Amino acid sequence: MTKSLFVLVFLLSLAGGVKAQNNNQLSLQFSFNQVELAYQHKLLSPKVWVEAFVGKGNQDINNSLDDFLGGVRIGYDAFSNKKNTLGISTSFGIYVPHNDYYTATTPVIGAGIRYTRFIGKSGKHCLFVNAGFQYGERNYKQQYSSEIVNLATIGTFKIAPLYSSIGYGFRF
Amino acid sequence: MKMMVLNFLFFVCISLLSSCEKEELSFTSGDIEVAIAAGESWLHDYPLFLGLTKKNPPQYAVWLEDTSGNYLSTVFVTYKIATEGWQANKGNRRPEALPHWCHQRGIVYDDGLMLPTKENPVTDAITGATPKGNTTIQITPVNLNKPFVVKAEFNQSVDFNDFYPKSAREEDNNYSGGDEGSGQPAVIYAVTVYPETNETELKLIGHSSPEGTDGNIYENTEGLTTAKSIVKSIMLTVK
To answer: How far apart are CA B84 and CA B89, in angstroms?
Structure first.
C-alpha cells in the first residue's frame, strides 16, 4: 500500500507538470515524528490548493520511523505577496502504525496554518512552516492464547494532537 | 488532472470509512474480567530537559500464580519492560521497574538479570502500550484450576518522595536506581480466585525491592505516598 501511494503521488506530479507554471509544488516536510512527501496543485483559483501527501511516522509503540501516513490537505492562501504567503488548511488522512503488537489504521483530521517564504527571483523554491491541530484515535484488540488461558484486551492508539513541521518546496 | 485529484479524495474517504470499525471485548460465561481503574497518580511528570516534563503512565504487569506462589502465566505486560523498549536509558536495564514479576517469572537472561531484552522480549502474553487511563483485560481459563491468584505490579519512574529520595546512595535501603530510578518502589496487588468467586478486588499486599535486587514482597507500605494512588481499583469479575 505504501509503495502504491508513493507511485500515485509521483504520477500526479507528472500529470501536473504539463500545466501552467507554479501551479504545482513538490515538497518535503519534516517534524519531530514524521517525514512527508507532498504534491500540491492549485485548484479552481490561484489561492486554493489541494495537496496529496504520503510519509513515514513514528507515533506508535515501537519508537521507529516505520508507520505509514497519507492523505490530502485543502488549503487557502489568505495573505500573500511576491515573497510570502500565509494560508490555512484542513486535512483528511490515515495513519497506519507498523509494529508487531497491533494493527490500528486510524483516520486523521486536522487543521492548521502554513507560512511560506519564496526563495530566489523565479520563486521556484520555497521554505515553509506548518503548525496545527490533528485528531486521530483508534481502539484495537489484542489477543493471546496459551494452554492455560486465552487473553484479550482493548488498547487505544492516539496520534499526537499538536503538530509543527518545516518543509522545502519546488514549484513548477 | 482534476479527475485524478477527485479520485484520490474518494480513495481517502473510502479508507477513512473502512477503518472505523469498533473493537469490543465479548465475555461469555466463565470468563474473567479484570478492570483496572487509573488513580490520581496514574500519570506522573517525567523530566525531559530545560524543565519540560512529560506525563508518563506506569509500567505494569498482570499475571497468574497458583496458591503456592508458583508462577503460571503472564496476562499483560507493558511494552517497555517486555521489550527493553526504554528510550535514553543510557544502558540502565531498570531492574527496579517490576522486580516481583521478574522474579516470579524466573527467566534469567544473558546478563544475569531477570528482565526481558530487545533480543528476547516477552512473547507469551499480551504486550501493549500502557493505557492513558482505565483498561480492561479478559481472561478465558482453558486449563486453569481454581483456586488461583491474580497478581498485578505497578511502578512509576522517578516518583521520589521523602522516604525514597533521589539523593539516596547505593548502600542505602531506600536506594531506587539513582537520579532516573524508580523513586517509590513498585506496588503489588493480589487476590485469590476461588470456585465460588463472583466479584472481588485486588488488594495492595506490599511493595517490591526499591532497587530490584530481589523478588520479595515488603508488606510495610508506610513510606509510600503517590505510589498508592497509581491505581484507584482493580476489580475482578467472573462472568
So the answer is: 10
Name the residue facing A139 among B2, B23, B124 (closest C-beta): B23
Strand B126-128 to B71-78 pairing: parallel
| Test mutation, B12, B18, B72, B83, chain A, max A CBs within 10 A | B12
Number of structural domains (chain B) is: 1
Q: Looking at residue B229, what DSSP letter applies? A: G
CATH number of domain containing A27: 2.40.160
> Tens place of pLDDT for every residue, chain B, 239 residues?
556 655 655 655 555 555 555 778 989 999 999 999 999 999 988 877 777 888 889 999 999 999 999 999 999 999 999 998 887 777 788 899 999 999 999 999 998 999 999 899 999 999 998 888 899 999 999 988 889 999 999 999 889 999 999 888 988 888 888 878 889 999 999 999 999 999 999 999 999 999 999 999 999 999 999 999 999 999 999 99
Q: Which residues pair with A96 in a beta bridge?
A: A68
Q: What is the pTM of this model?
A: 0.84
- CB B135 to CB A154 under 8 A? yes
C-alpha cell at A45: 483559483
For residue B62, the chain A residue with the least C-alpha distance is A151
Task: Judge whether A65 is closer than 8 Å to chain B, CB to CB.
Answer: no
Query: Residue A60: which domain range?
Result: 2-171
The structural domain count of chain A equals 1
Beta-bridge mates of residue B233: B37
Show which of residues 131-170 on chain A sit within 8 Å of chain B, judged by CB atoms.
Answer: 138-158
How many angstroms separate the CA of residue A120 from the nearest CA in chain B?
28
Cell of B88: 535514553
